[in-house]
Specification:
heterotrimer, B: 318 residues, alpha+beta, Thiol Ester Dehydrase, Chain A, 6-stranded antiparallel β-sheet, 5-stranded mixed β-barrel, 14 strands, 33% strand, C: alpha+beta, binds zinc ion
């Protein structure tokens, strides 16, 4: 069965806070700033919001955000799990709520002090009290504690299976940072970056070096989603959700699906891609630009394969001639991505994908972007969406 | 209330106030570039005021300076301290404390003030006295006294370069570690242990007892790792376990470089291993250089005590 | 010749944050730091000696902590600043394998004399506060 969500929900507002390494304010302050910016962008009032979707990892309760903003009544609030895997899952929640009439105007938000507060790079050490404590317990005594180390384990095997070299990882790291260097909001704004610096950077967990890893950032991002009817009266051109899906595949674990027969693959994203294409009636050839979740450089390559831009193990060849650059086949992470703009758990990516369709990216490709892909983090239950111009 | 014990120690220690630890002693070496360079390299300090003569000549100072934080360095005793220090007022004071049971020692504060900058070629003289001893204090570490030394530094012209005040707590060590303040915790770090719940406790307890087990469905005999309450093949909740031979082959690996966590031994290699029984298992690879570890490598596991608290299977090249 | 910028007193305000510095505490830094400061106490170069006083490994000597604290301050201020004092409270030991993050903030500024107070903290990722205190330095009127 193909879910019937095409053109049922439209992104009408986007907002980011300033991104920094030390915001000096609370996460709640970042959340309300981002949501307010998105409401203003849409030309709405806080009281127009009746639904909210965020991450289970977000520390800002919907009711606190609502109270601080003066939103009033909420008739929908839903949270999505699995870290960065929740990015487009929040959009999925918002779309379902709007398509079913549970809410009319939903804000998706994520705000964190990811550098000055809790740092993910510190890993899962410490007094974990969450339900998945036992899961991490199989790795902690061995020192396999950080997202970089889990992704490194996966990458090592994937490179072994496919023969893809670090040239491909560098191309992802480099193309993204060139975009970031041109984005005043990005951490990498105005910075030069070359292969020598990439190669000389500290090893984190081999084969991943420093510049294969994303930023750790303080900041917030939000998008406003509403019905097509409402969207038509608002100040921005509507950006329609043409398809959105989430998937947890067989034998899935969080970041460590090491017990699969072949663990160097992301079958959950292949399923999500298949379903998004079916919902939207589009194929890979229709995708003009993309925002692909980039906590680490290699995960962009796996997703290119999962979404069918090339076959398994062929992403190295796909990117090597500049496919991800602004004049390439698939301009990707034009805001600088999480590698060089900021790490807002992928919601800044939904903001950028919306800009690509509106035609307002700071690195807008010359060609018309009719359809932009945006994805969630992988190695975990994940998903993605295709956005397009509202009819 | 002043006890006899307190009267006894105080009558001895307060006599040290004002006593000289080091009489004025010129440093064996004049301030020199070689020692500054070594210091700056190790501190990672690229301040051109210390070593870049061309830059310094055109700077507001007109010349290079010694790093201020090296003030105390110039007059330090040399390597002979590894064989013991000469007796002086401070070591005598410490002996008095020790004799009365105040054997604990903790440097708590150090303050340096700099009155003038000094340059290569200058010579620094140090003079140190015991400047004051506090009244008896109760601290998180235990009951004791703070004593403070005052060092005064002068150059070869007799001009005052700076001072250093160093405060030390001598205390009776407490027996109950629960009263120790957080910042004073001195536990030897061990590896981070897995939490133990209903579904995994039995596995870790077997590991503590010297066995690596693999959970097995009693109904369909399917092995599963990590353990979970139900068989995904036949939905049976009945299970037992078999002992692994710990023969395996590496499916993937990574060497952890950053961040380094206390309690772990680096270099640290983690790997996903396919055990001969068919289940995958994550563990460390030891007994060879990290560069020798590769996918397809045959390994053999041994249960080892890796630190004071932790038993773990460790895998060696087979 | 390489150019170095020194902050002027007009460019600084109370509340300004210094950029954090992450310092890997390695055996090399501990042992070589002790050597560079001519501190030959065995606890700073011999693991056995350190363990005899109840610590798991060699630990950083005070003179190295002072050096790192002044470096942190002058990395921010630039080379024309004159360091006037370093006052630090000592906390938990720095042991190889730890990561110390040094942070700082301008807490006082006298525009006439250029005297600046910096509150500086070095925290390691395992035991917390290693050093905390004040660095005072004077900044030039103009660069
Ligand atoms: Zn079964």
């Amino acid at each position: 069965m193909i879910a019937n969500v095409k053109d049922k929900a439209v992104i009408v507002g986007i907002g980011n806070t300033t991104f920094s390494k030390d915001s000096g304010v609370s996460e709640l302050s970042l959340a309300v700033q981002a949501v307010k910016a998105a409401i203003d962008d849409a030309g709405l009032k806080p009281s127009d919001i009746d639904g909210m979707a965020t991450f289970t990892m977000d520390n800002n309760d919907e009711i606190e955000v609502a109270r601080a903003l003066g939103v009033g009544e909420l008739t929908f609030y839903g949270r999505s799990h699995y870290g960065g895997g929740a990015a487009t899952s929040c959009l999925h929640q918002a779309t379902m709520a709007i398509a079913t009439g549970m809410a009319e105007t939903v804000v998706v938000y994520r705000a964190l002090n990811g550098r000055s507060g809790h740092r993910f790079s510190g890993g899962v050490a410490g007094d974990i009290t969450t339900a998945d404590a036992i899961h991490w317990g199989w790795y902690m005594p061995y020192g396999l504690l950080t997202p970089a180390s889990w992704v490194a384990m996966f990458t090592q095997r994937w490179m072994h299976n496919t023969g893809v070299s670090k040239d491909a990882l560098f191309e992802v790291a480099h193309s993204t940072r060139v975009y970031g260097a041109n984005n005043p909001a990005a951490f990498f704004y105005g910075r030069n970056f070359d292969r020598a610096e990439y190669d000389a950077a500290r090893m984190i967990a081999d084969p991943l070096q420093l510049f294969d890893c994303c930023q750790e950032s303080d900041g917030g991002s939000a998008v406003i989603v509403t019905t097509p009817e409402r969207a038509r009266d608002l100040k921005q051109p509507g950006v329609s959700v043409l398809g959105v899906a989430q998937c947890a595949a067989d034998n899935q674990e969080q970041m460590t699906s090491f017990y699969r027969e072949e663990f160097a693959g992301i079958p959950e994203m292949e399923t999500a891609a298949k379903n998004v294409y079916a919902m939207s009636g589009l194929s890979v050839d229709d995708i003009d630009a993309a925002v692909i979740y980039d906590a680490f450089s290699p995960i962009v390559l796996w997703q290119l394969e999962a979404w069918g831009f090339c076959g398994y193990g062929e992403s190295g060849d796909f990117v090597k001639d500049g496919a991800l650059r602004t004049d390439g086949r698939l301009p990707t992470n034009t805001h600088g991505g999480q590698l060089s703009e900021a790490y807002i758990h992928g919601v800044n990516g939904i903001v950028e994908a919306t800009r690509l369709v509106r035609g307002t990216s700071v690195n807008q490709p010359a060609k018309t972007v009719n359809h932009a892909l945006v994805t969630s983090g992988v190695g975990i239950p994940t998903g993605g969406a295709i956005l397009g111009k509202m009819d | 209330m002043t006890t006899d014990e307190q009267k006894a120690i105080e009558s001895e220690i307060y006599a040290f106030i004002g006593q000289e630890v080091y009489p004025p002693t010129p440093a064996a070496d004049d301030i020199n570039e070689a020692m500054i360079r070594q210091w700056a390299e190790i501190m990672g300090d690229n301040n051109p005021a210390y070593l870049d003569k061309d830059w310094a000549a055109k700077s507001i100072r007109g010349t290079t300076i010694s790093p201020p934080a090296m003030m105390y360095v110039w007059g330090q005793e040399g390597f002979q301290v590894t064989k013991g220090r000469a007796l002086n007022a401070m070591s005598n004071l410490v002996s008095v404390f020790d004799k009365h049971g105040y054997t604990g020692v903790l440097g708590t504060n150090v303050k340096q003030e700099y009155f003038k900058e000094v340059n290569p070629g200058d010579n620094v003289t140090i003079e140190m006295i015991i400047d004051n001893i506090s009244e008896r204090k109760t601290t998180g570490r235990g009951t004791g006294y703070f004593f403070e030394t005052l060092s005064t530094f002068t150059d070869q012209r007799g001009e005052k370069v700076g001072t250093q005040r160093f405060k030390v707590l001598k205390f009776i060590p407490q027996e109950q570690p629960s009263a120790v303040a957080t910042e004073d915790k001195l536990d030897v770090p061990t590896r981070i242990a897995s939490p133990r719940g209903h579904d995994n406790k039995w596995w870790w307890e077997a590991c503590d007892d010297g066995k690596v087990l693999i959970q097995r469905c009693k109904s369909c005999q399917t092995l599963r790792h990590p353990p979970r309450p139900m068989c995904g093949e036949c939905q049976s909740m009945e299970w037992d376990s078999i002992e692994s031979t710990l023969d395996g082959e590496i499916l993937s690996h990574t060497e952890i470089h950053h961040p380094k966590i206390p309690g772990y031994q680096y270099p640290l290699v983690c790997a996903v291993i396919k055990l001969a029984e068919g289940t995958n298992f994550v563990a460390n690879i030891i007994g060879c250089s990290p560069s020798e570890v590769h996918i397809g490598m045959k390994v053999k596991g041994v249960l080892e005590q890796v630190d004071e608290k932790t038993m773990l299977p460790q895998f060696y090249p087979a | 010749m390489k150019e170095y910028k020194t902050l002027t007193r007009a460019e600084v305000a109370v509340g300004d944050k210094l950029p954090n510095a992450d310092i890997d505490i390695t055996t090399g830094l501990v042992v070589c730091g002790a050597l560079a400061t001519r501190d030959f106490e065995p606890v700073h170069h011999s693991k056995a000696a350190a363990q005899a006083v109840g610590l798991p490994d060699v630990f950083m000597n005070i003179l190295t902590s002072q050096g790192l604290m002044t470096r942190f301050a002058t990395d921010w201020s630039g080379p024309d600043a004159v360091v006037k004092s370093v006052d630090l409270r000592l906390g938990a030991p720095n042991i190889p394998g730890m990561l110390m993050t040094v942070s700082g903030e301008v807490t006082a500024l006298d525009k006439d004399s250029g005297l600046v107070d910096l509150a500086v903290t070095g925290e390691n990722n395992i035991w917390g506060m290693h050093m905390q205190g004040t660095v005072q330095l004077t900044l030039p009127k103009e660069s």
